[in-house]
Amino acid sequence: MGSFELNTTISNLRSLLESDLSAYDAVYLGNIYCRLFEDNFLERTDDLKEGIARVKDQGLRAYVTSYAAPRNDALPKVQIALETAAAAGADAIEVHNLGVLRMVHEQFPGMPAHVGGFANVYTDAGAEVLKEYGAVRFTPNYEISLDEVESITRGAGIPAELQVHGKMPLGVSDYCFLLEYEQHWPEKCPVLCQKQLFLKQGDWAMRSVGKGVLSGKDLCMLEHLPALIAAGHTMFRIEAAYETPAYRFQIGQIYRAALERAVAGDGTVDESAWQVIREHTAVGLCNGFYFGRTGSEYVGKRVEAVAACS
Amino acid sequence: MLAVTPRRDITHRLREQLGANLGMEPIPGYGPLQASPLSTAKGCGIDVPKGCAMLLAPAGNLEAAKQAFQAGADAVYVGLKGWSRGGARGEFDCEQLRQCIELAHALGKKVQLAANIIPKPQERQRLLQQLSELADWGLQAVILNDAGFLREVRRKLPGLAITASIGCGALNTDDALFYQDLGATAIVLPGYLEPEEIAAIKAKASIQVEIMLHMVQEFIQLGKCWMPSYVHFAAADRIFPAQRLGGSVKRGGVGTCFRICQQPWTLLNDGVEADQRLFPSRQISRVAELAAFLDAGVDVIKIQGRSLSAEMVSVIIGIYRSAADAWKCGQKGEWDPPALPAMWTVQGR
Fold first, then answer.
1. Cβ atoms < 10 Å from Cβ of B47
2. Would you call B264 and A201 a contact, using CB atoms and an 8 Å cutoff?
3. Mean pLDDT of chain B
4. CATH code of the domain containing A280
5. Best residue of B153, B168, B172 to probe chain A, by most A CBs closer than 10 Å
6. A266–chain B nearest CA distance, Å
7. Which of A102, A122, A173 to mutate to test the interface with B (most CBs of B within 10 A)?
């Protein structure tokens, strides 16, 4: 790995084949919310094999994610996905469920585990436990601040992967919010949740993806990348499981360039980047909880550029 | 487990045993809290009644605890000020908790403590100390929410039973095995799981299984929701300045669940209004299926609702007690559950 890793998320083979991944170092394959998501890698063994091969053929690391909240009926499929990932040479498994972490640890002891944001890592003590189960990195729970993340990485000796752009996960459900709308709209499951469906209340907006709720605003840490690099962070994610290939490509390019500049000690932001970000943003930008504020707020100097994205 | 006893008899016995303490005056012989060193062998562990699952009731105050015991609960779970998730639903101070433990012991029943927020690193030692003192008083079990703190409590207080809270998000057999590995005594599962799932877990895991058969199933899973702090985090800071971490309820942001899922949201499809609606949620009460869950090997039947009035706790526990006793007597499929109290609804939670 170079001085940093930029990765993204892709739910199915179609989206992978349509995506230009030249900005990325690694890709997470699979949709964590729903088994019925259109051709979810986690349900289609052949697609997963092909996806891993195609990612690796591009010189990237292939990570396979897993379900955020699996009940027993999903575990056989999880097992198959884990076996497929191991056999196809996946570089790591992402786990959001601690039972799945245990499965990986017990059955694939050499397989690195990346702990996902739904695993609820809030403290160094929690991270230490997961490290003993083979976790080599963790995505902190989304509602903790950068100061708290630093306390965990220092206390537990395990690096954090930070989402730096994209809609932030806010919750996961056991049933689908959107299925009842199938009758009213031309779109049906399993593509219904890929539509631009937002829940609004006054100035607040959240994105519904059926079994999950995402922030309506796109988390954006572009202007804060130099600070993240200076703090020692090296692994960054652009969350794009429900985004278009164009989003994945163009946002990825912006962040790759900005990270390279930050690593070289140049903290400037390419002004044209804001225009591109604006084109891919439906309801504005936020920083999530990184600065200890309400998740939908934006903290930074680029207030005008950010306001223009709203 | 106690045999089914008419409520008036229990009340009479309570009065005999406790006298004025039923009125919640301090229990004679007990002074103010004293600090004690961390112990290494305390607590009495979860002792499930032989032949039937334990019936575990919520208690947001002492009166609710009394009513729950009277109605047939084997144990109650209570919150301790500052340390329990959803504090607004009712928490005890230390003295009230001690009185509750005394009351339970007098009746041969038990008390569990919901210390189910995630303590900050600098708070862990203080909470451990407090748990040690409570174990000395006879606390049966502590309900915890963080894997790291759970393991720390197991190592430092090996005699205290530990329950992995429903906020841990456990759903499957391997989750149960994970918390079993960490040393948890029991794990709480949501009531929307099926008896077959419980049986499958019990077939592989020795950890005790609690199931919250009477609960509100909100749209987002318990422990996996930070929608409120996305919308309202700053307001929480103003309401509870520096008292706790901000954020979701499990972080201890006391009262910071703003129930945004119970407010109407406009669903927009490509910017066009499609509907006005709440997030779906429903009241689960599976008392009619209790026999199937007991057959599946459930160890503890848990009732949600520390915010419930004492009267409501009494009614609900009474219904579950009757169902459990019918199962114990072999009346499988012959027990007709009475209607639930109308007040117990999702909106009224």
1. 13
2. yes
3. 79
4. 3.20.20.70
5. B172
6. 32
7. A122
> Dihedral (C-alpha) B174, B180, B182, B187: value to the nearest 10 degrees?
90
Summarize pLDDT for B254-289 with one digit per residue, the tens: 445 667 777 788 888 888 888 888 888 888 889 999
In whole angstroms, what is the distance from residue A173 CA to residue B217 CA?
10
- Owning domain of residue A26: 5-307
B chain contacts of residue A175, beta-carbon cutoff 8 Å: 219, 280
| B269 reaches A (C-beta below 8 A) | yes
Cβ atoms < 10 Å from Cβ of B10? 17
**Hey, is the C-beta of B126 within 8 angstroms of any chain A C-beta?**
no
Alpha-carbon span B2 to B166, nearest angstrom: 27
- Selected residues 202-241 of chain B with any CB under 8 Å from a CB in chain A: 217, 219-221, 223-227, 229-235
pLDDT tens, B207-227?
999 999 999 888 888 888 888
Minimal-distance CA residue of chain B relative to A196:
B270
Q: Is B225 helix (H, G, I), strand (E, B) or coil?
A: strand
The number of angstroms, rounded, from the C-alpha of B109 to the middle of its chain's C-alpha atoms is 15
* Nearest CB neighbour to B231, from listed A68, A129, A204: A204
The answer, yes or no, to whether residue B250 has pLDDT greater than 70, is no
* Cβ contact, residue pair A295, B175, below 8 Å: no
Task: Indicate if the pLDDT at residue A245 is higher than 90.
Answer: yes
Question: What is the C-alpha separation between B177 and A223, in angstroms, rounded?
Answer: 43
pLDDT 10s digits, A65-102:
999 999 999 999 999 999 999 999 999 999 999 999 99
Q: CA-CA distance, B281 to B45, in Å (whole number)?
A: 34
- Quick one: CA torsion of B20, B21, B24, B29, rounded to 10 degrees? 110
Overall number of domains in chain A = 1
Classify the C-alpha dihedral B88-B89-B95-B96 as positive or negative.
Answer: positive
**Extended strands (E) in A16-115:** 26-29, 61-64, 92-95, 113-115
Domain boundaries, chain B: 7-218+281-328, 226-279
Domain B7-218+281-328: give its CATH superfamily.
Aldolase class I (3.20.20.70)
pLDDT at B121 over 60: yes
N- to C-terminal Cα distance for chain A? 36
Which tokens hold the place of B232? Answer: 């309202």
What one-character-per-residue DSSP string does A247-310 give? HHHHHHHHHHHHHHHHHTT-----THHHHHHHHT-SS-EE-TTTTSS-TT---SS-HHHHHTT-
The two tokens of residue A181 are 């709308």
Rounded to the nearest angstrom, the minimum Cα separation between B121 and chain A is: 7
Q: Is the peptide bond before B195 cis (omega within 30 degrees of 0)?
A: no
* Predicted pLDDT of residue A97: 97
Residue-wise pLDDT tens digits, A203-220: 788 999 999 999 999 999
Q: Are A86 and A79 in contact (CB under 8 A)?
A: no
Q: Residues 306-335, chain B: which have Cβ within 8 Å of A?
A: none
